[in-house]
Design a protein that fits this description.
mainly alpha; single chain; globular; 2 domains
Length: 491
């Protein structure tokens, strides 16, 4: 059965990628047009085959245990080597260099932005912020129905700030702890969390990688994402309301769990809010890339981390027999005279080390690979097929379905690279569909894949598939509501 599923998804992936490959930079497409269309050249077919094979390995990550970044990074190198060779054969030695520099700049902006955000999230986790929230939830003795709605609502509210992946993992630990042996409840609650986290991430630049890319591209301003709040809310509420029909009654036993906020936790929360403000201000008022504000905020965290690391130097503990003399007078105190319960000093570089490096390197491979296909002309071809022949509305709705099968990151990068001629309402639509479309399948979003690993054997592909029809209803309803409440954004 597992082989049957994998083979089916491999076929779907191949078809989706063949039909999608819809983006590439405008500069890369122009260069390809000037030097010739390589979509019918054997090099073009070879590059497309390399990308499809690499992505098939990405989809099979849970089965073969090969980190997703490895095949796409190798694929990027092979693709660009072939692209450079074929352009050199035509005498063009400049187009490839300009195209790859453009794609590298796209990656670096995304990489540094995410690195700063991940470092903050890991720092808050290390200080016990998320652990305290989890302890509060599992010790309150809520009913199954209350846990279902509370974890879903918190996923929807937290994901716009902390991103959908982190939020889904946090809420899933609560559901697994409270659900105990009731696997049916855990499975349904995990589906609800994944849908809510993806929906919440769709109306914020910080909630999902695709919304971040749209914001950094300057197509949708920071405040304009919030017009997607009501469509995103509908996207979560409809399947959630349907799934409540199968929830068990009664209450699970309350768990006695305690968590402690370490020193500096709330200061870091404040610094994170300041950092978001810096990123928004840099983009809106100074017309700088948002990453400048994020990296400046990361610098503030590092300075505060220095203060925490040196707290024993600034505020030494008094000796056991000292009734009045300050420890500063005595210099460094022996270890035995220090508070044994004092937690280890904060180290910001440990938070950096815990960043999702596999995910960051995966973005490198995807952006460079898709950019290489764009340089060959495939992405302009796919854009013409989708946005020229089908029209923007149908194409943007299709983006959501493709996101569930493939992944929303390469799809959105492709669309942003081509920049099809669409009005503002359509750009908001594709932002919505790319963000929430992945919820229709468990493999369609990073949140779903991560929760599958956390609730292994309970929240599975087939468990999610049973409710795909309800999630699809929410998807359709969110699109209808978007046209209803945001109609004035369409021309």
């Amino acid at each position: 059965m597992k082989k049957f599923v994998n083979s089916n998804f491999l076929c779907l992936t191949v078809l989706a990628l063949m039909g999608l490959v819809a983006g590439g930079s405008a500069m890369a497409a122009a260069g390809a047009a000037a030097s010739g269309d390589f979509t019918g050249h054997w090099v073009g077919f070879a590059c497309l085959a390399v990308f499809v094979c690499a992505y098939a390995l990405v989809i099979s990550e849970e089965t073969i245990h090969l980190k997703k970044s490895k095949p796409v990074m190798v694929a990027a190198g092979i693709i660009w080597a072939l692209v450079a060779w074929v352009f050199t054969q035509t005498g063009d030695t400049e187009t490839v260099g300009r195209a790859i520099e453009h794609n590298l700049l796209e990656f670096v902006e995304l990489f540094l932005f995410l690195l700063a955000a991940m470092t903050y999230i890991n720092s808050l986790d290390e200080r016990g912020v998320f652990g305290s929230l989890r302890a509060w939830l599992v010790s309150r003795g809520f009913s199954f129905r209350a846990i279902f709605w509370i974890t879903g609502a918190l996923s929807f509210v937290i994901s716009p700030i902390a991103d959908n992946l982190t939020t889904a993992l946090l809420m899933a630990t609560v559901v697994i702890a409270v659900g105990g042996t009731d696997h049916r409840f855990i499975a349904v609650a995990c589906i609800n969390i994944v849908v809510a986290a993806n929906a919440g991430g769709a109306f914020s630049p910080f909630g999902d990688i695709t919304t971040l890319m749209v914001w950094q591209k300057g197509i949708v301003e920071f405040h304009e994402f919030f017009v997607l709040f009501i469509p995103s809310l509908v996207n979560w509420l409809i399947p959630a309301a349907i799934m409540t029909l199968v929830l068990p009654g009664g209450k699970p036993p309350a768990l006695d769990e305690k968590a402690v906020l370490l020193e500096g936790a709330w200061v870091m929360v404040g610094l994170f809010i300041v950092t978001i403000g810096l990123a928004v201000s840099a983009h809106n008022f100074l017309h700088l890339p948002p990453v400048i504000g994020m990296m400046s905020g990361l610098g503030l965290l590092k300075i505060y981390g220095y203060f925490l690391e040196r707290r024993d130097h600034f505020f030494p503990a008094p000796s056991e027999d000292d009734i009045g003399q300050s420890g500063l007078m005595e210099g460094t105190l022996p270890d035995k005279r220090r508070d044994a319960d004092r937690p280890a000093a904060f180290n910001v570089f440990k938070a950096l080390q815990r960043a999702e490096w596999d995910t960051l390197m995966f973005f490198y491979g995807i952006i460079l690979s898709v950019g290489g296909l764009g340089t060959l002309g495939y992405l302009a071809l796919g854009s013409n097929l989708m946005y020229g022949d089908l029209g923007p509305t149908t194409a943007n709705i299709l983006v959501g379905f493709l996101s569930a099968i493939v992944d929303n990151i390469p799809i959105m990068f492709a669309v942003l690279s081509v920049l099809p001629d669409m009005d503002h309402g359509q750009w908001l639509l594709v932002t919505l569909t790319a963000g929430v479309g992945g919820s229709m399948l468990s493999i369609g979003s990073a949140a779903g894949v991560a929760v599958m690993g956390q609730a292994r054997g309970i929240y599975t592909f087939f468990a999610h598939l049973k409710w795909s029809w309800a999630i699809a209803l929410g998807y359709a309803a969110s699109i209808w509501v978007h046209f209803l409440v945001n109609g004035h954004h369409f021309q």
